[in-house]
Amino acid sequence: MLNQRQFVRECVEIAVFVAILFFAFRIILQSYQVTSTSMSPAIVQSSLVLVNKLAYTTHNPERGDVIVFRYPRDTRIAYMQRIIGLPGDSILINGEHIWINGRQLHEPYTRLSYDNPFAKTWQVPSNQYFVLGDNRRTSDDSRLWDFVPRDYIIGKAAFVYWPLDQWQSVNNFSDAYR
User: What's the CA gap between 39 and 131, in Å, rounded?
Assistant: First the structure.
């Protein structure tokens, strides 16, 4: 049987272990609540998503990654969108299609057209990214305010854990560029 001193020591050890796990978890992962419909239908409004904050410590973000970033017009606000254009890319949005460096982007994650008969082009600057929401009709994205600086990226969306019936890993469709 444990004496009082051993019991207190074990309680302190457990508390320290839990605190270390908690802070390690917070360094690596962050919970993010989706506040808009811009990523529908894949990720619905009010979903809770785990974001891997260390995802880009060993490599750069890739086309198709769903990221959480600080909104360039107000860095106190976080957005979640999909990377479409990488640094140096030339992007053309023409009606219902996106062209990257002259090649059409295959987008299985969106079923909505742009409903825009006009074409527009962007040249992505170095160390910046062009992002779009999957629900193009409701998305406030790079089409309206241009690019996301690399250092504004918080992390890569990894897993939807709420609501329970929406549990899923986030598909980044890295093969969408043909």
Answer: 11
Q: In this structure, what token pair is assigned to residue 176?
A: 């969408």
Yes or no: say if 142 and 148 are a contact pair by the CB < 8 Å rule.
Answer: yes
Q: Can you name the residues that pair with 115 across neighbouring β-strands?
A: none
Structural contact between residues 27 and 19, judged by C-beta atoms closer than 8 angstroms: no
DSSP 50-92: EEETTTTSSS---TT-EEEEE-TT-TTSEEEEEEEE-TT-EEE
Tokens found for residue 152: 């504004």
pLDDT digits (tens, 9 = 90+) for 103-140: 998 888 776 565 566 688 999 999 999 999 998 888 88
Please name every residue paired with 51 in a beta bridge, in sequence order, or none if there are none: 30, 157
Global confidence as pTM: 0.83
ω into residue 41 within 30 of 0, thus cis? yes
Q: Which two tokens stand for residue 79?
A: 């957005």
- Dihedrals φ, ψ of 81, to 5°? -155, 175
